[in-house]
Input
Amino acid sequence: MAADPLDNLRLSLMQDVLPVGMAIVERARRGGVGDLVAVLTETDDPLNQLRQEGDQAARSVRHTLDRVQPGLGNPVMPVDVRPAPEPPSARLDPHAEIDALQQTLQRIHGRLLLLDQRLTEH
Output
């Protein structure tokens, strides 16, 4: 999770509170207070149930927020990117690298000459 407490709070709101809130609103709109009370009293884990029910609507809200400003709905998580170390077997000696480079350059030069010939023929 992010190191900044405000980012932690926003992330928690977007991932945990928003889906539950969206499900509560939908249940109250669809079935009234009775439907909302039913989920709170009749299920073993009402918060998890509500979170699952509201996940799709919360995803839609987060996507809309991201269109307003990228990272607003789905926080951008910092990553640490480093190049992977080369295995010792992949390293060539400097002379072999120079030879391979010279061969590649000669092949490119030959193809450029061929292209030049074909372009001047027409």
